[in-house]
Amino acid sequence: MSQVLQGLLVALIAAAVYMESRIGGQHMLDRPIIIGPLVGLVMGNPGMGLAIGGELELVWMGLNGIGTTTPPNVVVGSALATALAISTGASYETTLALAIPIAVVAQLCDIAAPVVNTFFAHRADKCAANGDYRGIELCNWGGAVVYFLFKFVPVFLGFVLGSGLITSFVDMIPAVIQNGLAQSGNILPALGVAMLIQLTWDKKFGAFLFLGFGLAAFLKVDTLGAAFFGAVIAFIYYKLSGRNSSESALGMNVVSGGVDDDSEEL
User: Fold this and answer.
1) Alpha helices, DSSP H only, in the chain?
2) Which region is the signal sequence (predicted)?
3) What's the average model confidence in pLDDT over 121-145?
4) Are residues 60 and 99 in the same domain?
5) How confident is the model at residue 264 (pLDDT cuts 50, 70, 90)?
6) How many separate domains does the chain show?
7) How far apart are CA 231 and CA 240, in angstroms?
8) The whole model's pTM is what?
């Protein structure tokens, strides 16, 4: 498969999964864990695509645009980083460290797209004032095309024009620097998880977090095993909490019933 055709397919995947959240409802298809394997399938290495996508998902799982803030472009960063890693043969740890600046630079596209889209917004207002419903429909689709292009074009150009540059750049990096990038790439998922924990931390359930850490660090339990133990503990906690609530409610009913009986006797 030629490089241009691969670039077209990778860019199409990135733009298509993003547009699903715009016109097809939000089903979370534009996440790195989905983009990575799809890009890897096109590039002929779905296993590495899944590995990179999983690592990037850990980095960006707690990243959200709140209000008018524009977060890094996760779609472009995930698709381009995965494609470049597979095409250049670089380790996914090294490419993981490069994915962050790619997403930050591509953030400019997310800022520029709404600005360009204001043309269609004003045009739709004029069509609405004139009762031109067909014009309103075309303006809506025109805005969708703008968002599609601002995902498709950066990924395609970054892959076609940047793969050779990335290859040369990776070859020029000394071994000690590559080892440093690999270690920083291993830290980034932990940073992403820490950011998510900071948003969801609750003292009531904090002990379960350290229990999972202990299973992995000291007992060498893998992720699937820890998830199994977590599901069992969650089920037991749910059953015990439900029983305590039922007993408390029963006690309240008994007490209230006793008061009612006394009031009736009086």
Assistant:
1) 3-23, 32-43, 46-60, 74-88, 92-129, 133-172, 175-200, 206-217, 223-265
2) none
3) 89
4) yes
5) very low
6) 2
7) 14
8) 0.60
CA-based nearest residue to 14, from 216, 156, 182: 156
Q: How far is CA 252 from the centre of its chain?
A: 46
DSSP per-residue string spanning 125-156: HHHHHTT-HHHHHHHHHHHHHHHHHHHHHHHH
| Average pLDDT estimate for 222-236 | 88
Token code pair at residue 136: 């309103």
Taking 70 as the threshold, does the pLDDT of residue 92 lie above it?
no
CA 223 to chain centre: 19
The last residue of a domain, from among 161, 179, 201: 201
Q: What single letter denotes the amino acid at residue 262?
A: D
Residues 6+ apart with CB under 8 A from 196: 61, 62
- The verdict on 48 and 25 lying in the same domain is yes
Is residue 123 within 8 A of residue 135, CB to CB? The reply is yes
Same domain, 239 and 180: no
pLDDT beyond 60 at 257: no
How far is C-alpha 104 from the geometric centre of its chain's CA atoms? 15
